[in-house]
Amino acid sequence: MVATAVLGLTTPPTAAADPVATTAVVLRVVDGDTIDIRDDVRGRLRVRLLGIDTPETKKPGYTVGCWGPEATDFAATTMLGQRVALVGDATQDSTDRYGRTLAYLVRADGWDYSVEAARAGTARSYVYHRHPVSRYDAIKSAEDEARTAGRGLWGPPCDGDTASVPS
């Protein structure tokens, strides 16, 4: 919570209480929903972004999903090198089964990557094991806006179909 206060950000009460909240610099974009950061407290971490899913680009043995490279490019263009608040969500685990930190990334200007990736049409809202994230409504609303506008993966050539199949 101290990190978000320093940045002048506000977070939902559930996220503010989560011990993941800290500041970091985005070092590398793995794909549209996985990013490597240098956390001011814990060092280098791999982060799986909460509340969104992007088309596959790096799943071994599978094809690249439609709009996958564009989702990765969006993440790189908007986040690479940025100082961000790494904000957990008390409704979710702090790590996934692969050991990645589960968090939102929010820039100092309040720009929430998960919401804005959905708004740009580079991500869709994602609910893991029937447990929606605390920011689900904002992410889903942004996704609906992109879908209505035919933006990103919701327009041609994907038209919402981003399936990655065994190669």
What is the helical fraction, as a range of percent?
25-40%
Which structural class should the secondary elements be placed in?
alpha+beta
Largest sheet: 5 strands, mixed, barrel
CATH domain class name? Mainly Beta
Q: Compute the gyration radius: what is it?
A: 15 Å
Describe the strand arrangement of the main beta sheet, using strand numbers. 1-2-3-6-5
InterPro entries: SNase_OB-fold_sf, Staphylococal_nuclease_OB-fold, Thermonucl_AS
Keywords: Endonuclease, Hydrolase, Nuclease
Pfam families: SNase
GO molecular function, one term: hydrolase activity
Topology:
Elements lengths: L1 H6 L5 H4 L5 E10 L2 E6 L3 E7 L2 E2 L14 H12 L3 E5 L13 E7 L5 H8 L3 E2 L10 H14 L18
Parallel strand pairs: 3-6
Antiparallel strand pairs: 1-2, 1-5, 2-3, 4-7, 5-6
Account of the 3D structure:
The strands form two sheets. A five-stranded mixed beta barrel has the order 1-2-3-6-5. It has a two-stranded antiparallel sheet with strand order 4-7. It is of the alpha+beta class. Helix content is 26%, strand content 23%. The chain has a single domain, classed as OB fold (Dihydrolipoamide Acetyltransferase, E2P). It has five helices and seven strands, in the order ααββββαββαβα.
